[in-house]
Design a protein that fits this description.
Elements: H1 5-19, H2 30-58, H3 63-88, H4 96-100, H5 105-131
Helix pairs in contact: 1-2, 2-3, 2-5, 3-5
Length: 135
């Protein structure tokens, strides 16, 4: 259980670091809401792979399903959820119309990359802990 503390600290620090950027129209609750959304996004990506996809599919020998579900999760589900939460909390620098245009392609690709990194770290963390028998 204590092995998860560094994961939480890093996720919250990274989310806070990116939330301290200012954009026009920033509200007083912007940093708090943005940090919560980004932390949820990164930790959700991490733990989806750590707790669900790796033990239920990859470790069980169902590699095809693992790659299918993992790809859908990384490319579609988590980036869309994160962008939707940022829009709902009004902490997104871009509006809905801008996100749906070609201008929103770069933030979407960035969210896919961050989701991929967090997911890969969750899978690696799962394998590392299993290798050292600390689960």
């Amino acid at each position: 259980m204590l092995f998860h503390i560094p994961v939480w600290i890093v996720a919250i620090f990274v989310a806070w670091f990116f939330s301290t950027d200012s954009f026009p129209g920033m509200r007083s609750s912007y940093v708090c809401l943005s940090t919560l959304v980004l932390s949820f996004w990164m930790l959700g990506s991490f733990y989806a792979f750590y707790s669900f996809l790796v033990p239920n599919y990859l470790a069980a020998g169902k590699k095809g399903l693992f790659w299918l579900y993992g790809s859908i999760f990384v490319v579609l589900i988590m980036p869309v959820v994160c962008i939707a939460l940022l829009l709902l909390t009004k902490t997104s620098a871009l509006g809905l119309q801008e996100l749906l245009s070609s201008e929103g392609l770069l933030p979407y690709l960035g969210s896919v990359i961050v989701t991929l990194v967090c997911s890969a770290l969750g899978a690696l963390y799962r394998f590392m802990l299993k290798r050292y028998h600390t689960l």
